[in-house]
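[step 3/7] fold_predict: job queued, chain A
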Amino acid sequence: NFKEINYERIELIHPDKRDDMIADLQNRTGLPIHRVELIRVDFLKDVAQINAFYYSKQNESTSRGMGSDDD
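[step 4/7] structure written:
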């Protein structure tokens, strides 16, 4: 599973600080994040859009509008 996150700690998007970024995201979200993917960076607003991938016992794809049809 993954969460799309707007991340303001732009100093941690550098590849050398990837472990620090993952630790920060784990601490802030409480999710067992194991990988991050950089989508876009806005240096004017000092924010990065990332996908944070984490392990979960359940597939949470229904939270993104996919999966079951409740209508």
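[step 5/7] annotate
DSSP finds one helix and three strands in the chain.
The helical segments are 18-29.
exit 0
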